[in-house]
Amino acid sequence: MQIIIYLTAYFLVVSSLANDIIDESIDMDKNTQEMAEIHGYPCENYTAVTLDGYILRLFRIPGHRNESLEEAKKHKRQPVILQHGLVDSSDMFLVNEEPALGYLLADAGFDVWIPNLRGNKYSKMHQTLKVTSEEFWNFSIDEVIKYDIKAIFTRVIEITKFDQVFYAGHSMGGGTFIAAASRDPKFYGRYAKGYVGLAPSTRSLHSLYLLRLAFYTKFFTTFQRLGMHEIFNFDKNVRNFFSYFCDCFPDICSQILSLLADQQPEYDNTKKYKVFFNHYPSGTSTHQIIHIMQQSAHYGYYEYQRSPIDPLIEYDFTKFPPEVPVAIYAGAADLLVSVIDTRWLRDKLKPLNVVKEYKEYIGYGHLTFILPGKYYDPYYDTLAFFKRYK
């Protein structure tokens, strides 16, 4: 009799877990456009072609919730670019939904553009190169700085007919803009209306010790020598495994994240782990990962060293265009982009008088900027900053 009772209880538990898995979020296995449309937002997508031939996918939310695409496109709304970080994608600006930064800005009257950088799941295209070739993956963060950001700006301006565009970038998406604008201040001084860095990744000297360990042990260089030129492009089944695992055991996932990215994961929206890991990671080149590792070993922000004998060439942030107002938002509990390094970035830009706002948020880790669950100050501060300079 006891065996029957135990078996009945076991199957009830399994059945309950199975029902939870079947009851998937409506954002599961959807692309950025499908996610926006399911939540009632008008959305479309475009491509932008870089000067070196990469074809980038850009998603656009031109209007507010429950507005048709046709109606939304009748209105002239200030465009804003939301740029994802390393091994990430446009999905991340819509995942949280409580609120999501993309939806918040769209409802506030902005024309929201969410591009994808070369090599992620949406931007694995080239005019001449095959994605299976080694040459396709022969890019670092330098190519994003030199080509991708400018191609995105050019395309948004071409479509919207606006003279200037706002830009907000998370992590690498924030750092690449600072470097790009410092390399070409004439272009970005003309076309960038304002910039917000959400835990912008530049110098990484005080980042998680695992980054430095990976650099000094040449962990990812070994992957490259073994012919792995693309990395973190997980199979859908692998992503779904992590997705369901974190949905069933959020406390375990929080503990793991507390070692890798967020010192205080209780500030993250654990209810959205299932959706987050269904969309993340989105892949990139091994060169980009190694480039990030290299930044953790230096006192500045440098170009990629393909060989140990290559000279160290630093991006000169003192050349950043003085016309562009800057806001920098840092997480006090961020293990990947330390507040010490963020303050270094602030101080580098301070003599130019461009940093109009700098804030550090208690409890915020690196993931919290994408998946906030406790308070949303950086999102509302971003909105307020753009409205101030609109």
Description of the structure:
The chain has 390 residues and is α/β, with parallel strands linked by helices. Helix 9 (219-225) packs antiparallel against helix 13 (286-295) and helix 10 crosses helix 11. Mean pLDDT is 90; it is low at 1-24. The protein has a single domain (25-388), classed as Rossmann fold, CATH 3.40.50. It starts with a helix and ends with a helix. The protein has helices at residues 2-22, 32-38, 69-72, 101-107, 141-160, 172-183, 185-191, 209-216, 219-225, 236-248, 250-260, 273-279, 286-295, 339-349, 377-388; strands spanning 44-49, 54-61, 79-83, 111-115, 125-126, 165-170, 192-198, 230-231, 284-285, 326-331, 355-361. It is globular and about 55 Å long. The longest helix is centred in the first third of the chain and has 21 residues, at 2-22.
Properties at a glance:
alpha/beta; disordered N terminus; Rossmann fold; 390 residues; two-stranded antiparallel sheet
Short description, anyone?
By secondary structure, this protein is an alpha/beta fold. The chain has helices at 2-22, 32-38, 69-72, 101-107, 141-160, 172-183, 185-191, 209-216, 219-225, 236-248, 250-260, 273-279, 286-295, 339-349, 377-388; strands at residues 44-49, 54-61, 79-83, 111-115, 125-126, 165-170, 192-198, 230-231, 284-285, 326-331, 355-361. Strand 1 (44-49) and strand 2 (54-61) form a beta hairpin.
